[in-house]
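REVIEWER CHECKLIST
Item 1: Sequence provided? yes
Item 2: Single chain? yes
Item 3: Sequence as submitted:
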Amino acid sequence: MRRITRWASAIFLTAASLSLVGCGAEKAAVKEQVKQEAIKWKLVTSWPKNFPGLGVAPERFAEKVGKMSGGRLTIKVYGAGELVPALQVFDAVSAGTAQMGHSGAYYWKGKSPAAQFFSTMPFGMTAQEMNAWLHNGGGLELWQEVYAPFGLVPLAGGNTDIQMGGWFNKEINSVSDLEGLKMRLPGLGGEVLKRAGGVPVNMPGGEIFTSLQTGAIDATEWVGPYNDLAFGLHKAAKYYYYPGWHEPGTTIEFMANKAALAALPEDLRMIVEVAAKATNEEMLDEYMVQNAKALKILVNEHGVELRQFPPEVMVKLKALTEEVLQEQVATDPQMKKVYDAYMTFLNDAKEYSKVSSKAYMELRDN
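Item 4: Structure as written out by the authors:
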Protein backbone atom coordinates (compact mmCIF):
# COMPACT_ATOMS: atom_id res chain seq x y z
CA MET A 1 0.00 0.00 0.00
CA ARG A 2 2.84 2.35 0.86
CA ARG A 3 4.48 1.62 -2.51
CA ILE A 4 1.25 2.45 -4.32
CA THR A 5 0.93 5.75 -2.45
CA ARG A 6 4.49 6.72 -3.29
CA TRP A 7 3.88 5.79 -6.92
CA ALA A 8 0.72 7.92 -7.05
CA SER A 9 2.50 10.88 -5.45
CA ALA A 10 5.29 10.66 -7.98
CA ILE A 11 2.79 10.68 -10.85
CA PHE A 12 0.98 13.70 -9.31
CA LEU A 13 4.19 15.67 -8.86
CA THR A 14 5.33 14.87 -12.38
CA ALA A 15 1.98 15.97 -13.80
CA ALA A 16 2.07 19.15 -11.75
CA SER A 17 5.57 19.93 -12.92
CA LEU A 18 4.59 19.40 -16.53
CA SER A 19 1.55 21.62 -16.00
CA LEU A 20 3.69 24.40 -14.54
CA VAL A 21 6.15 24.07 -17.38
CA GLY A 22 3.24 24.31 -19.78
CA CYS A 23 1.90 27.45 -18.06
CA GLY A 24 5.32 29.04 -18.10
CA ALA A 25 5.73 28.27 -21.76
CA GLU A 26 2.26 29.64 -22.48
CA LYS A 27 3.00 32.89 -20.58
CA ALA A 28 6.29 33.27 -22.39
CA ALA A 29 4.54 32.76 -25.69
CA VAL A 30 1.94 35.40 -24.82
CA LYS A 31 4.64 37.89 -23.79
CA GLU A 32 6.50 37.22 -27.03
CA GLN A 33 3.30 37.70 -29.01
CA VAL A 34 2.60 41.02 -27.26
CA LYS A 35 6.16 42.11 -27.92
CA GLN A 36 5.84 41.28 -31.61
CA GLU A 37 2.42 42.95 -31.92
CA ALA A 38 3.25 46.09 -29.90
CA ILE A 39 2.16 49.25 -31.67
CA LYS A 40 4.32 52.33 -31.24
CA TRP A 41 2.89 55.82 -31.60
CA LYS A 42 4.35 59.31 -31.50
CA LEU A 43 2.55 62.14 -29.70
CA VAL A 44 3.63 65.72 -30.41
CA THR A 45 2.65 68.66 -28.21
CA SER A 46 2.57 72.45 -28.19
CA TRP A 47 4.12 72.60 -24.73
CA PRO A 48 7.65 72.42 -23.34
CA LYS A 49 8.60 68.89 -22.36
CA ASN A 50 7.18 67.98 -18.92
CA PHE A 51 5.97 71.55 -18.34
CA PRO A 52 3.74 71.65 -15.23
CA GLY A 53 0.14 70.81 -16.02
CA LEU A 54 0.07 71.12 -19.80
CA GLY A 55 3.30 69.24 -20.52
CA VAL A 56 2.84 66.58 -17.86
CA ALA A 57 -0.68 65.65 -19.00
CA PRO A 58 0.33 63.87 -22.24
CA GLU A 59 3.05 61.98 -20.35
CA ARG A 60 0.44 60.69 -17.89
CA PHE A 61 -1.85 59.82 -20.78
CA ALA A 62 0.87 57.79 -22.46
CA GLU A 63 1.62 55.97 -19.21
CA LYS A 64 -2.05 55.07 -18.75
CA VAL A 65 -2.35 53.75 -22.28
CA GLY A 66 0.79 51.64 -21.88
CA LYS A 67 -0.35 50.07 -18.62
CA MET A 68 -3.98 49.50 -19.60
CA SER A 69 -2.94 47.91 -22.89
CA GLY A 70 -0.36 45.66 -21.25
CA GLY A 71 2.30 47.19 -23.47
CA ARG A 72 0.41 46.51 -26.70
CA LEU A 73 0.26 50.24 -27.43
CA THR A 74 3.16 52.46 -26.39
CA ILE A 75 3.25 56.21 -26.96
CA LYS A 76 6.36 58.37 -27.00
CA VAL A 77 5.71 62.02 -26.15
CA TYR A 78 7.62 64.85 -27.83
CA GLY A 79 7.67 68.37 -26.39
CA ALA A 80 7.33 71.47 -28.54
CA GLY A 81 10.20 71.70 -31.02
CA GLU A 82 11.53 68.20 -30.41
CA LEU A 83 9.88 66.67 -33.47
CA VAL A 84 7.78 69.54 -34.85
CA PRO A 85 7.35 73.21 -33.84
CA ALA A 86 4.71 73.99 -31.23
CA LEU A 87 2.20 75.43 -33.67
CA GLN A 88 2.57 72.69 -36.29
CA VAL A 89 1.03 69.91 -34.22
CA PHE A 90 -2.21 69.96 -36.23
CA ASP A 91 -0.42 69.54 -39.57
CA ALA A 92 1.92 66.86 -38.22
CA VAL A 93 -0.90 64.65 -36.96
CA SER A 94 -3.02 65.29 -40.03
CA ALA A 95 -0.14 64.20 -42.27
CA GLY A 96 0.65 61.15 -40.14
CA THR A 97 4.09 62.37 -39.06
CA ALA A 98 2.80 61.62 -35.57
CA GLN A 99 -0.24 59.58 -34.63
CA MET A 100 -1.41 61.95 -31.88
CA GLY A 101 -1.08 65.53 -30.71
CA HIS A 102 -1.83 67.56 -27.58
CA SER A 103 -2.58 71.23 -28.08
CA GLY A 104 -5.32 73.89 -28.11
CA ALA A 105 -8.03 74.06 -30.78
CA TYR A 106 -7.97 77.87 -30.97
CA TYR A 107 -4.52 77.70 -32.56
CA TRP A 108 -6.13 76.27 -35.71
CA LYS A 109 -8.56 79.06 -36.57
CA GLY A 110 -6.68 79.42 -39.87
CA LYS A 111 -7.64 75.83 -40.69
CA SER A 112 -11.24 76.19 -39.57
CA PRO A 113 -12.67 79.21 -37.70
CA ALA A 114 -15.15 76.89 -35.97
CA ALA A 115 -12.29 75.09 -34.21
CA GLN A 116 -11.96 77.94 -31.73
CA PHE A 117 -15.23 77.09 -29.95
CA PHE A 118 -13.78 73.76 -28.84
CA SER A 119 -11.08 75.46 -26.78
CA THR A 120 -12.78 78.52 -25.31
CA MET A 121 -14.72 81.65 -26.12
CA PRO A 122 -14.51 85.09 -24.45
CA PHE A 123 -17.23 85.37 -21.81
CA GLY A 124 -18.21 81.80 -22.65
CA MET A 125 -18.45 78.45 -20.89
CA THR A 126 -16.68 77.43 -17.71
CA ALA A 127 -14.71 74.19 -17.53
CA GLN A 128 -17.64 72.25 -16.11
CA GLU A 129 -19.95 73.60 -18.79
CA MET A 130 -17.46 72.75 -21.53
CA ASN A 131 -17.09 69.17 -20.30
CA ALA A 132 -20.86 68.79 -20.11
CA TRP A 133 -21.37 70.21 -23.61
CA LEU A 134 -18.66 68.07 -25.18
CA HIS A 135 -19.53 64.77 -23.55
CA ASN A 136 -23.27 65.04 -23.02
CA GLY A 137 -24.51 67.94 -25.11
CA GLY A 138 -23.42 67.09 -28.65
CA GLY A 139 -20.28 69.22 -28.67
CA LEU A 140 -17.85 66.38 -29.30
CA GLU A 141 -19.81 65.20 -32.33
CA LEU A 142 -19.62 68.70 -33.80
CA TRP A 143 -15.91 68.83 -33.06
CA GLN A 144 -15.41 65.54 -34.89
CA GLU A 145 -17.33 66.97 -37.84
CA VAL A 146 -15.07 70.03 -37.97
CA TYR A 147 -11.87 67.95 -37.84
CA ALA A 148 -13.00 65.16 -40.20
CA PRO A 149 -11.83 66.87 -43.43
CA PHE A 150 -8.31 66.97 -41.98
CA GLY A 151 -8.22 63.27 -41.12
CA LEU A 152 -8.27 63.97 -37.39
CA VAL A 153 -10.30 62.71 -34.44
CA PRO A 154 -10.45 65.15 -31.48
CA LEU A 155 -10.77 64.27 -27.79
CA ALA A 156 -10.90 66.52 -24.74
CA GLY A 157 -7.50 66.27 -23.06
CA GLY A 158 -7.59 68.65 -20.11
CA ASN A 159 -8.95 71.97 -18.92
CA THR A 160 -7.18 74.83 -17.18
CA ASP A 161 -10.44 76.28 -15.80
CA ILE A 162 -10.82 80.08 -15.83
CA GLN A 163 -7.50 81.72 -16.55
CA MET A 164 -5.96 84.97 -15.36
CA GLY A 165 -6.34 88.19 -17.33
CA GLY A 166 -2.62 88.38 -17.94
CA TRP A 167 0.63 90.20 -17.20
CA PHE A 168 0.98 93.87 -18.14
CA ASN A 169 3.85 96.32 -18.07
CA LYS A 170 1.45 99.20 -17.60
CA GLU A 171 -1.77 99.78 -15.70
CA ILE A 172 -5.10 99.27 -17.43
CA ASN A 173 -7.42 101.96 -16.13
CA SER A 174 -9.62 102.50 -19.17
CA VAL A 175 -10.38 101.12 -22.61
CA SER A 176 -7.98 103.67 -24.12
CA ASP A 177 -5.09 101.89 -22.38
CA LEU A 178 -5.64 98.95 -24.72
CA GLU A 179 -4.92 100.99 -27.83
CA GLY A 180 -1.65 99.95 -29.44
CA LEU A 181 -1.06 97.33 -26.74
CA LYS A 182 0.95 94.40 -28.14
CA MET A 183 -0.29 91.33 -26.28
CA ARG A 184 0.20 87.63 -26.69
CA LEU A 185 -3.44 86.58 -26.93
CA PRO A 186 -4.63 83.76 -29.23
CA GLY A 187 -8.02 82.81 -30.60
CA LEU A 188 -11.18 84.89 -30.43
CA GLY A 189 -9.78 86.85 -27.48
CA GLY A 190 -7.08 88.18 -29.79
CA GLU A 191 -9.69 89.29 -32.32
CA VAL A 192 -11.56 91.17 -29.59
CA LEU A 193 -8.36 92.88 -28.44
CA LYS A 194 -7.71 93.92 -32.02
CA ARG A 195 -11.19 95.45 -32.23
CA ALA A 196 -10.38 97.41 -29.06
CA GLY A 197 -7.30 98.88 -30.74
CA GLY A 198 -4.73 96.41 -29.44
CA VAL A 199 -2.28 94.25 -31.37
CA PRO A 200 -2.75 90.51 -30.71
CA VAL A 201 0.33 88.31 -31.11
CA ASN A 202 0.27 84.53 -31.37
CA MET A 203 3.35 82.72 -30.08
CA PRO A 204 4.13 79.45 -28.28
CA GLY A 205 4.66 79.41 -24.54
CA GLY A 206 8.40 78.97 -24.77
CA GLU A 207 8.85 82.40 -26.38
CA ILE A 208 6.69 84.43 -23.98
CA PHE A 209 9.14 85.35 -21.23
CA THR A 210 11.85 86.71 -23.52
CA SER A 211 9.34 88.61 -25.64
CA LEU A 212 7.82 90.25 -22.58
CA GLN A 213 11.17 90.99 -20.98
CA THR A 214 12.64 92.58 -24.11
CA GLY A 215 9.55 94.64 -24.90
CA ALA A 216 8.67 92.74 -28.07
CA ILE A 217 5.22 92.52 -26.46
CA ASP A 218 3.69 94.76 -23.80
CA ALA A 219 1.52 92.15 -22.15
CA THR A 220 0.74 88.46 -22.22
CA GLU A 221 -1.65 85.88 -20.96
CA TRP A 222 -0.49 82.33 -20.58
CA VAL A 223 -2.65 80.21 -18.30
CA GLY A 224 -2.71 81.04 -14.61
CA PRO A 225 -0.55 81.24 -11.47
CA TYR A 226 0.66 77.62 -11.67
CA ASN A 227 2.20 77.98 -15.14
CA ASP A 228 2.97 81.69 -14.86
CA LEU A 229 5.13 81.08 -11.79
CA ALA A 230 6.95 78.25 -13.56
CA PHE A 231 7.74 80.57 -16.48
CA GLY A 232 8.85 83.34 -14.12
CA LEU A 233 6.57 85.88 -15.75
CA HIS A 234 6.56 87.92 -12.54
CA LYS A 235 10.16 88.82 -13.35
CA ALA A 236 9.15 90.34 -16.68
CA ALA A 237 5.96 92.27 -15.84
CA LYS A 238 4.66 94.16 -12.82
CA TYR A 239 0.87 93.96 -12.97
CA TYR A 240 -1.18 90.76 -12.83
CA TYR A 241 -4.79 91.25 -13.92
CA TYR A 242 -7.93 89.19 -13.45
CA PRO A 243 -10.37 87.74 -14.44
CA GLY A 244 -9.57 85.80 -17.60
CA TRP A 245 -12.47 87.11 -19.67
CA HIS A 246 -10.89 85.69 -22.82
CA GLU A 247 -10.52 82.09 -21.53
CA PRO A 248 -13.12 81.19 -18.90
CA GLY A 249 -12.76 77.42 -19.27
CA THR A 250 -10.09 76.37 -21.75
CA THR A 251 -10.33 72.83 -23.08
CA ILE A 252 -7.02 71.31 -24.10
CA GLU A 253 -7.22 68.77 -26.90
CA PHE A 254 -5.87 65.42 -27.89
CA MET A 255 -6.10 64.78 -31.59
CA ALA A 256 -5.52 61.43 -33.23
CA ASN A 257 -4.77 60.65 -36.84
CA LYS A 258 -8.04 59.13 -38.03
CA ALA A 259 -6.45 56.31 -40.07
CA ALA A 260 -4.07 55.37 -37.25
CA LEU A 261 -6.90 55.29 -34.72
CA ALA A 262 -9.14 53.23 -37.00
CA ALA A 263 -6.35 50.69 -37.49
CA LEU A 264 -6.27 49.87 -33.76
CA PRO A 265 -8.22 46.92 -32.38
CA GLU A 266 -11.46 47.99 -30.71
CA ASP A 267 -10.16 47.51 -27.16
CA LEU A 268 -7.11 49.71 -27.82
CA ARG A 269 -9.29 52.45 -29.29
CA MET A 270 -11.40 52.31 -26.15
CA ILE A 271 -8.27 52.52 -23.99
CA VAL A 272 -7.17 55.68 -25.82
CA GLU A 273 -10.60 57.27 -25.27
CA VAL A 274 -10.79 56.32 -21.59
CA ALA A 275 -7.22 57.49 -20.91
CA ALA A 276 -8.02 60.82 -22.58
CA LYS A 277 -11.11 61.32 -20.40
CA ALA A 278 -9.13 60.51 -17.27
CA THR A 279 -6.42 62.98 -18.29
CA ASN A 280 -9.06 65.61 -18.98
CA GLU A 281 -10.35 65.42 -15.41
CA GLU A 282 -6.92 65.08 -13.81
CA MET A 283 -5.66 68.30 -15.38
CA LEU A 284 -8.65 70.30 -14.17
CA ASP A 285 -8.19 68.96 -10.63
CA GLU A 286 -4.47 69.72 -10.68
CA TYR A 287 -4.96 73.31 -11.79
CA MET A 288 -7.47 73.99 -9.03
CA VAL A 289 -4.95 72.89 -6.39
CA GLN A 290 -1.76 74.33 -7.87
CA ASN A 291 -3.18 77.69 -8.98
CA ALA A 292 -4.30 78.42 -5.43
CA LYS A 293 -0.84 77.64 -4.08
CA ALA A 294 1.04 79.54 -6.79
CA LEU A 295 -1.07 82.70 -6.44
CA LYS A 296 -0.12 82.96 -2.76
CA ILE A 297 3.55 82.64 -3.67
CA LEU A 298 3.34 85.28 -6.41
CA VAL A 299 1.62 87.81 -4.16
CA ASN A 300 3.19 87.08 -0.77
CA GLU A 301 6.73 86.14 -1.76
CA HIS A 302 7.30 87.99 -5.02
CA GLY A 303 5.24 91.10 -4.38
CA VAL A 304 3.15 90.81 -7.52
CA GLU A 305 0.50 93.55 -7.84
CA LEU A 306 -2.82 91.77 -8.33
CA ARG A 307 -5.31 93.97 -10.14
CA GLN A 308 -8.93 93.57 -11.24
CA PHE A 309 -9.86 94.92 -14.66
CA PRO A 310 -12.02 98.05 -14.37
CA PRO A 311 -15.74 97.35 -14.94
CA GLU A 312 -15.87 99.72 -17.93
CA VAL A 313 -13.14 97.71 -19.67
CA MET A 314 -15.03 94.45 -19.14
CA VAL A 315 -18.29 95.95 -20.42
CA LYS A 316 -16.56 97.18 -23.56
CA LEU A 317 -14.75 93.92 -24.23
CA LYS A 318 -17.98 91.95 -23.81
CA ALA A 319 -19.75 94.20 -26.32
CA LEU A 320 -16.85 93.86 -28.77
CA THR A 321 -16.92 90.08 -28.34
CA GLU A 322 -20.52 90.02 -29.54
CA GLU A 323 -19.62 92.21 -32.53
CA VAL A 324 -16.70 90.00 -33.55
CA LEU A 325 -18.68 86.78 -33.20
CA GLN A 326 -21.66 88.01 -35.20
CA GLU A 327 -19.40 89.20 -38.02
CA GLN A 328 -17.43 85.97 -38.16
CA VAL A 329 -20.33 83.53 -38.02
CA ALA A 330 -22.06 85.48 -40.78
CA THR A 331 -19.27 84.56 -43.20
CA ASP A 332 -18.74 80.89 -42.28
CA PRO A 333 -21.71 78.44 -42.24
CA GLN A 334 -19.84 75.81 -40.23
CA MET A 335 -18.79 78.35 -37.64
CA LYS A 336 -22.39 79.53 -37.35
CA LYS A 337 -23.60 75.96 -36.87
CA VAL A 338 -21.15 75.39 -34.02
CA TYR A 339 -21.78 78.83 -32.52
CA ASP A 340 -25.55 78.29 -32.45
CA ALA A 341 -25.13 74.93 -30.69
CA TYR A 342 -22.60 76.42 -28.26
CA MET A 343 -24.84 79.35 -27.36
CA THR A 344 -27.97 77.22 -26.98
CA PHE A 345 -26.17 75.03 -24.45
CA LEU A 346 -24.57 78.02 -22.69
CA ASN A 347 -27.87 79.87 -22.31
CA ASP A 348 -29.54 76.81 -20.80
CA ALA A 349 -26.57 76.30 -18.45
CA LYS A 350 -26.66 79.95 -17.36
CA GLU A 351 -30.32 79.71 -16.39
CA TYR A 352 -29.59 76.76 -14.15
CA SER A 353 -26.41 78.33 -12.74
CA LYS A 354 -28.42 81.33 -11.53
CA VAL A 355 -30.23 79.14 -9.02
CA SER A 356 -27.36 76.69 -8.35
CA SER A 357 -23.61 77.43 -8.47
CA LYS A 358 -23.86 81.22 -8.90
CA ALA A 359 -26.46 81.59 -6.14
CA TYR A 360 -24.48 79.35 -3.82
CA MET A 361 -21.14 81.10 -4.38
CA GLU A 362 -22.65 84.52 -3.79
CA LEU A 363 -24.15 83.20 -0.56
CA ARG A 364 -20.95 81.47 0.52
CA ASP A 365 -18.63 84.38 -0.21
CA ASN A 366 -20.70 87.18 1.31
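Item 5: Key structural point noted by reviewer: The two ends are 90 Å apart (CA to CA).
Item 6: Recommendation: ____
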